[in-house]
């Protein structure tokens, strides 16, 4: 009986230790902001699944390792905005692959409307080349 308890204890400990070493599968998400002169003086705040993950100035980008699966990305302009997030963009993050999200600014009456748009690597490469990586994007610099 004592050996059964010891074996059960070790089996339980082994199960917990294996769960502790399991790694979450991730993919990369590039958040890119190259919006020209429109709102260039203010930070844009990016939200992943309604959680703030980054504030970016114009001509900058950031890279984030995100768990695989369905996610939503939205953006809100800093400065004198209404504070409402853009319509959420649904993305599918796949292990080991990159998603490229760019801010798009459109004219809506007298105001500019910003939204997120998923783009291809070929479209992202020129934008990344003329912008700088922000590795600490939660601080407004």
Explain the overall architecture.
With 141 residues, the chain is of the alpha+beta class. It has a single domain, classed as Immunoglobulin-like (Sandwich), CATH 2.60.40. The strands form two sheets. The protein has a five-stranded mixed β-sheet, covered by helices on one side. The protein has a four-stranded antiparallel β-sheet with strand order 3-2-5-6, with no helix packed on it. β2 and β3 form a beta hairpin. The relative contact order is 0.22.
Total beta strands? 9
Mean pLDDT: 81
Which class do the helix and strand fractions yield? alpha+beta
Number of domains as seen in the coordinates:
1
β-sheet strand percentage: 35-45%
Fraction of residues in helices?
10-25%
Give the low-confidence spans.
14-20
In this structure, how is the largest beta sheet organized? Answer: 5 strands, mixed
Order of helices and strands: HEEEEEEEEHE
- Sheet with the most strands: spatial strand order: 8-7-1-4-9
Secondary-structure arrangement, i.e. CATH architecture: Sandwich
Sum up the overall morphology in one term.
Answer: globular
Output the CATH topology: Immunoglobulin-like
Separate helix tally: 2
CATH class membership: Mainly Beta
Radius of gyration: 21 Å
The quaternary organization reads as single chain
Distance between the termini: 64 Å
């Amino acid at each position: 009986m004592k050996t059964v308890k010891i074996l059960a204890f070790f089996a339980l400990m082994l199960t917990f230790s294996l769960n502790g070493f399991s790694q979450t599968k991730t993919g990369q998400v590039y958040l890119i902001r190259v919006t020209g002169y429109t709102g260039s003086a203010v930070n844009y705040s990016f939200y992943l699944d309604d959680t703030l993950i980054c504030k970016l100035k114009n001509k900058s980008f950031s890279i984030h390792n995100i768990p695989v699966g369905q996610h939503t990305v939205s953006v809100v302009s800093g400065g004198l905005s209404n504070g409402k997030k853009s319509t959420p963009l649904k993305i599918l993050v796949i292990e080991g692959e990159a998603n490229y999200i760019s801010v798009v600014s459109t004219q809506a009456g007298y105001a500019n409307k910003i939204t997120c748009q998923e783009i291809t690597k070929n479209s992202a490469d020129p934008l990344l080349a003329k912008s700088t990586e922000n590795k600490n994007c939660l601080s407004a610099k």
